[in-house]
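TICKET: design request
STATUS: open
ATTACHED STRUCTURE:
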């Protein structure tokens, strides 16, 4: 209880949710790239803007009451389950003006762009989380 009270406050829940989202997005991109030459394959996506909007709503709903659970509801793609874990479900990417002759809608350039964006987000999030947990370790040890 004590540990969850410490780690469940501030930005930590949002950072952990962001790490979970980034992991799922990287898996989705890898699946898309692996199926690039599969005829009829429709690319999947995880909407970053939708996730960020859901994250903002979760902060607004929680307000300043840190004892209130941090719950994300972003529709079909992201949501917090009954146990408090973030569940991420990719959706089919919309056809953006191009449907290739083999029935696919996947652009390798778009996937590489999404990969770079997600990698940068993941790096930033892990750096912030590392600093947060380093501070907790110092507080527990009583060192500065």
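STATUS: resolved
RESOLUTION: sequence designed for all positions
ATTACHED SEQUENCE:
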């Amino acid at each position: 209880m004590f540990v969850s009270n410490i780690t469940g406050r501030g930005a930590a829940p949002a950072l952990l949710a962001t790490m979970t989202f980034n992991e799922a997005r990287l898996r989705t991109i890898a699946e898309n790239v692996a199926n690039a030459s599969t005829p009829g394959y429709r690319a999947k996506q995880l909407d970053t803007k939708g996730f960020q909007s859901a994250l903002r709503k979760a902060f607004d709903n929680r307000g300043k009451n840190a004892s209130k659970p941090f719950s994300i509801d972003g529709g079909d793609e992201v949501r917090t389950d009954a146990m408090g874990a973030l569940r991420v479900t990719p959706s089919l990417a919309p056809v953006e003006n191009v449907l290739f002759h083999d029935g696919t809608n996947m652009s390798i350039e778009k996937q590489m762009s999404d990969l770079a964006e997600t990698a940068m987000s993941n790096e930033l999030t892990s750096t912030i989380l590392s600093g947060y947990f380093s501070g907790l370790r110092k507080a527990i040890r009583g060192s500065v």
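CLOSING REMARK: The beta strands are 44-45, 78-80, 86-88, 91-92. Residues 1-6 have pLDDT under 50 and may be disordered.
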